[in-house]
Each structure stands twice: as structure tokens, then as C-alpha cells.
Design brief:
This protein is α+β, with helices and mostly antiparallel strands and 446 residues long. It contains 8 helices and 17 strands. Keywords: Membrane, Transmembrane, Transmembrane helix.
Length: 446
């Protein structure tokens, strides 16, 4: 005997039907939040791989030479002064005065070398540096130093080289008509300075007037090469066959030329642009320490043009957006077409969306970020399209969701490329997306 539905049964079915939609929407929301857990694990994996890349660079640099900052020559004059000790007794103390050149010109040619440690690329270089200039006059009275207090047989010249392992030849400096031979710093002087020193066999300040100097350095390093503009007037000229320079330091160059065949850059630095004087004594900077002239260094970093890890890390920040938009689109397709999809199947689709980032990370280490993004996106879209076609039994609805996914991934890729305009482009895209969702959800019976 056929059961005739009563009014009460019909109302109950309607309530359940509407409640079912709301319950499923709530479950989908919870699923989105749960999928943030594996997403965070993938983000940690990206950071781990980036750290491994830095370790590989450090390992190669340790066997070659690290970042280089070349400073000098700095004329260093020791003198004896008196100071009170803890008991108030006056004692003789040796201190140092530093004199910088009036003119300094640096001409450097940087020859890049690309090395690999496993799958990681490391940019090394060998630079030929011509350094010349002059000291016009050393004025001890400018610093209130009595020439009689100077220890003349301990006067020396300092050349600062951050990593002396990178020096491929013995460092020599032509000093007027004599040649100075530098050795690792064992004399003392400026606080914490790395580099080499050479004694000056002089007996008076007059021997330090009108000094011309010149040196040619053959130096190796990795990633970065900087020069400190210590001259009252400093001119620094760099050129290289490397096409991807990143100019760095205290100031940017006055002129640059960057082409596929390489780059050239020129700096001109004057004394009034620096944060240290032309001559100074030990421990007389405003903070009670010796002036750190290397803070004013300028130069170039051999920039690796595409850092896949940074872009992958930026892309995973949009993971919740991709998952949410995909689930909303799938939910609308399911509801409008009166289909029924189990939350477990939503979860599988969500996991496929998370695995997109592991594919992106894996492929980007070999083929670059852009190609890896295309491979990972097409693979993920293909997998989800095949799965949805099976559960909805509709190639048309599967195609619709595939188009949505393609638009979502294209949208995120565009944001990643337009870094300077990502906020504007992202806001407009989200506004349009919200409008589309509002349009298709108008006739839903909640």
C-alpha cells in the first residue's frame, strides 16, 4: 500500500533539505581550516629546502672565499698618550690615529663563475682590481697629536680585505718610489678590522706628504663585492660580464648600464656624504668606538635572478584562497545541479590542492619557478577534473570546475609576477570573484 506523504512529512523534508545544505557548508568550512595543517607542513618543507640552499652556498664559499669588502689604504700612526688607571695613576698608553687618502680611484673587472653543489647554483667571482690615489698631507696637529709622541718606527698602512683567502697573489702597494709588502694583520689598530698591514720605514711626518700609491689586487669571492670610498674624493668603477647585478651598499651608483652582455657602474663619493671624518683617533666616534668606515661600502651583489624558494613561499600564502575558491565553486556546482558529494570527497580534492605546492617546490628546483608552476597547476587541474567527472558523472560540470581552477591558478600566478602591484591586482580580483559568487548564489534556497 502506497504511503501518502502528510503535510508534516513534507515540511520536515523541506527543513532537512535546507538544513543539509547549511550543515554541508559548515563541514566544508571546517575542512578548509583543517587543510591549513598540511599546508603549514609544506611551508615548513619550503623553508627547510631554502635553508639547505644557503648551507650549500656557505659550503662552497668556505672553500672558495666569502663576500668581499675591500678597504684602504689607511695610514695608521701609533702615538703615546697619558691616561689615568683605576687607581688614578697616570700611565702611558699607546693609541692609534687614522688618516685616509685625499684621492682614491678603484677600477675593477669582475669575472663571474657559476658553480653547483648538488642541485644548487652558487655565484662566485674573480676580480681584478686596480686601486690608486694619493695622500696630500698628514696633519697631526689637526688631531692634537704632538709629533714627539709618535712611535715612528711602528707606523703602518692597512688594507682591509674581508676574506684574505680570496687573495690570489701577494698583496703589494706601490708607495711613491718604494713597494710595500702586506702580511696578515698582527700589529693591532682599528677595532675588529680584517685585512693586511705593511710597515712604513719613516722618521717624521714630512715623509708622509704628497704620497702616491697604487696596487693591483687579484681577489676571489662569492655573491658580493664591495669597496669602501675612504678618499676625500672617491671614484669607483665596476664592470662585469654578469647580466643580473644587484647594486648595493650605502649609496647607489651615479650611473649604470645593464645589458645581456654584462654591466658597468660608477660611484663618485665626496667627504661630506660620509659618516666619518678624513682623519680620526681611536675610540673617538660618538658611541665611544672607532669609526667603522666599512659601513659606507658600495658595490654589487651577483644576484641569482630567480629564487624559486621565495616565490614558492609567497605562493603558498595564497593556499587558503585557492582552497576556499575551489570549494565554493564546487559547492555551487553541486547545489545548483542537485548533485550530492560526500565531504570525504571534498577532503580528497583539498589534499590535491595542497599537493600542488609540493609539486611546485620539487619541479622548481630543476626547471625554474615559472615552468614548475605550469606543470604543477596542469597536473592538479587534470587530477581534480578526472575525479570530479567520476563522482558527478558529468564531463560538462568537470570542465566548468577545471576552468575555475585554471582561472584561480592564473590569478595567483599573475599576483606573484606583479609584485609591486600585487595588492591592487589582488583586491580587484577578489572583488570580481565575490561578484561572480554572489551572482551564481542568488537563487539558492537556503
Amino acid at each position: 500500500m502506497e504511503t501518502i506523504p502528510t503535510a508534516t512529512t513534507t515540511i520536515a523534508n523541506d527543513i532537512w533539505s535546507k538544513s543539509k545544505v547549511l550543515i554541508k557548508a559548515g563541514i566544508i568550512g571546517v575542512l578548509i581550516l583543517l587543510l591549513l595543517i598540511p599546508t603549514n607542513y609544506v611551508e615548513g618543507l619550503i623553508q627547510e629546502r631554502e635553508a639547505r640552499q644557503k648551507e650549500a652556498i656557505a659550503e662552497v664559499s668556505q672553500k672558495w672565499a666569502g663576500k668581499q669588502t675591500i678597504t684602504g689604504p689607511i695610514l695608521t700612526i701609533p702615538y703615546i698618550t697619558t691616561a689615568a688607571d683605576a687607581n688614578g695613576k697616570l700611565t702611558n698608553v699607546k693609541k692609534y690615529a687614522y688618516f685616509l687618502p685625499d684621492q682614491l680611484q678603484v677600477d675593477a673587472t669582475v669575472n663571474p663563475q657559476e658553480k653547483h653543489r648538488g642541485i644548487y647554483k652558487v655565484m662566485l667571482y674573480n676580480a681584478l682590481v686596480n686601486l690608486k690615489g694619493q695622500f696630500a698631507k698628514v696633519n697631526l696637529s689637526q688631531l692634537g697629536i704632538d709629533p714627539q709622541s709618535v712611535v715612528w718606527n711602528e707606523v703602518f698602512v692597512r688594507m682591509g680585505v674581508t676574506d684574505t683567502r680570496g687573495l690570489n697573489e701577494e698583496l703589494q702597494l706601490k708607495w711613491n718610489n718604494s713597494t710595500l709588502l702586506f702580511a696578515p694583520n698582527a700589529i693591532g689598530g682599528q677595532d675588529g678590522a680584517d685585512g693586511l698591514t705593511a710597515r712604513l720605514p719613516i722618521q717624521s711626518a714630512e715623509e708622509l706628504n704628497n704620497i702616491s700609491f697604487e696596487s693591483i689586487l687579484n681577489v676571489s669571492g662569492s655573491e658580493q663585492l664591495l669597496f669602501t670610498p675612504i678618499g676625500k674624493t672617491s671614484k669607483i668603477n665596476l664592470q662585469s660580464a654578469y647580466p643580473h647585478p644587484s647594486f648595493t651598499g650605502d649609496v647607489l651608483p651615479q650611473s649604470t648600464l645593464v645589458k645581456d652582455s654584462g654591466f658597468s657602474a660608477n660611484w663618485i663619493s665626496l667627504a661630506h656624504k660620509r659618516n666619518f671624518p678624513q682623519e680620526f683617533r681611536q675610540y673617538e666616534s660618538p658611541n665611544g668606538k672607532t669609526y667603522d668606515v666599512e659601513n659606507s661600502a658600495v658595490g654589487v651583489s651577483l644576484f641569482v635572478p630567480v629564487n624559486a624558494y621565495q616565490k614558492t613561499l609567497r605562493s603558498i600564502k595564497y593556499a587558503i584562497l585557492c582552497i576556499a575558491l575551489t570549494f565554493v565553486a564546487f559547492f555551487l556546482i553541486e547545489t545548483i545541479n542537485r548533485k550530492s558529494v560526500h565531504p570525504f570527497q571534498y577532503g580528497l580534492i583539498g589534499l590535491a590542492l595542497v599537493l600542488f605546492y609540493t609539486l611546485l617546490l620539487s619541479f622548481s628546483e630543476y626547471v625554474g619557478f615559472n615552468a614548475a608552476y605550469g606543470i604543477a597547476a596542469l597536473s592538479t587541474i587534470g587530477l581534480i577534473a578526472w575525479f570530479v567527472k567520476g563522482i558527478l558523472a558529468s564531463g560538462k560540470l568537470s570542465t566548468v570546475l577545471s576552468v575555475v581552477l585554471l582561472l584561480v591558478y592564473s590569478y595567483v600566478f599573475s599576483i606573484l609576477q606583479l609584485q609591486d602591484y600585487s595588492l591592487l591586482f589582488g583586491s580587484i580580483g577578489l572583488f570580481i570573484t565575490l561578484g561572480v559568487i554572489m551572482y551564481f548564489s542568488r537563487k539558492l534556497q537556503w
